[in-house]
Amino acid sequence: MLDVRKLRLLRELAHRGTIAAVAEALNYTPSAVSQQLTALERETGAALLERTGRRVTLTPAARGLVARTEELLAVLQRATAELATATTELTGTLRIGVFPSAVPAILTPAIVALSSEHPGLDLMVTELDPASVPDALRGERLDIALVQEYDYVPVLADPGLETEPLLRETVHLAARGAEPLVAHRDSAWIAGTPGTLCHALTLRACEAAGFTPRIRHHADDFGAVLALVAAGQGVAFVPDLGTAGAPEGVVLTPLPIRRRTHLAYRRGTGGHPAVAAARTALRAAVDHRGEV
Predict the structure, then answer these.
(1) Buried b vs exposed e over 24-63: b needs ≥16 C-beta within 10 Å?
(2) Which residue spans traverse the membrane (predicted)?
(3) At 188, phi and psi to the nearest 5?
(4) CATH for 96-292 (3.90.226.10, 3.40.190.290, 3.90.25.10, 3.40.640.10)
(5) How many angstroms separate the CA atoms of 32 and 29, rounded?
(6) Mean pLDDT for the chain?
(7) pLDDT on residue 86
(8) Are 257 and 150 in contact, with CB atoms under 8 Å apart?
(9) Does residue 282 surpass a pLDDT of 90?
């Protein structure tokens, strides 16, 4: 019988690429991860890793085993969810991941509703960039989270996660005037930290308009971005949720660019009572926002 814990390490190696990254994510030492993967090779009787110096790559047999592992983990998650439905009151910890601009309009009313309807549920919120969410969900540091993608920055499906549409927003050009995007080919730009989806959007949307943006400032909080725009420090892309309280003098020009937000959770956990309650509360918060 194969050890699920060892299979999970192999799955994480497939996603993260290095043994060091797996060790850091799951609180192992690199040597412990290597030992567990070597033991898994003995158990399977198949070569799973190709080692070249300090680098390792997965063999075709390992990639097939990873695909089966995703299916197995989803079955185990569904079994756990089914057992949890037998309880009459929701208890335990529910860990929710959210990006900053969703906190006031979506997360806050959702957790107020969850706390009121399920007082036995211990809610823990983590603010993080959506690019970090898949790793956090697979590593079981989160139970449900908001993920997003922009036009020009599509996100590949993760076989270990399930997603469902939640919100669709318009992206605006924030500037001191109402000029079109192409008029800012020589302007200074304000973008997110490199590696974030917002940074990638700035690069790709400008390139699609025929120029490479000259990024002067990096800021991940849209309030800070708008303050910099108001101060004449550059222009930026800002989605609907980030435009609240825009300072005087900032002109928001709607663009044919959309940001799409999805709910994400591990495969098989959508029916868990706590995750299902969070899905309901987050959807209700979005629906209420649309009615205001």
Answers:
(1) ebbebeeeebbebbeebbeebeeebbeeeeeebebeeebe
(2) none
(3) -75, 145
(4) 3.40.190.290
(5) 5
(6) 91
(7) 62
(8) yes
(9) yes
Contacts of residue 275, Cβ cutoff 8 Å, sequence gap at least 6? 81, 94, 143, 144, 265, 269
Q: What angle, 0 to 180 degrees and rounded to 10, lies between the N-to-C axes of helices 4-16 and 30-44? A: 120
Q: Are 90 and 277 in contact (CB under 8 A)?
A: yes
What pLDDT, in 10s, does the model give residues 154-187? 888 888 899 999 999 999 999 999 999 999 999 9
SS3 content of the chain, % helix, strand, coil (to 5): 45, 25, 30
E-assigned strands of 99-244? 121-127, 144-150, 161-175, 188-191, 214-218, 236-239
Other CB atoms within a 10 A radius of the CB of residue 189 amount to 20
- Quick one: fold of 4-84? Arc Repressor Mutant, subunit A (1.10.10)
147 CA to centre of own chain: 4
Q: With contact defined as beta carbons under 8 Å apart, do 20 and 30 qualify?
A: yes
How many Å apart are CA 17 and CA 9, to the nearest integer? Answer: 11
Strand partners, 92: 121
Q: In the chain, count of helices (H) and strands (E)?
A: 9, 10
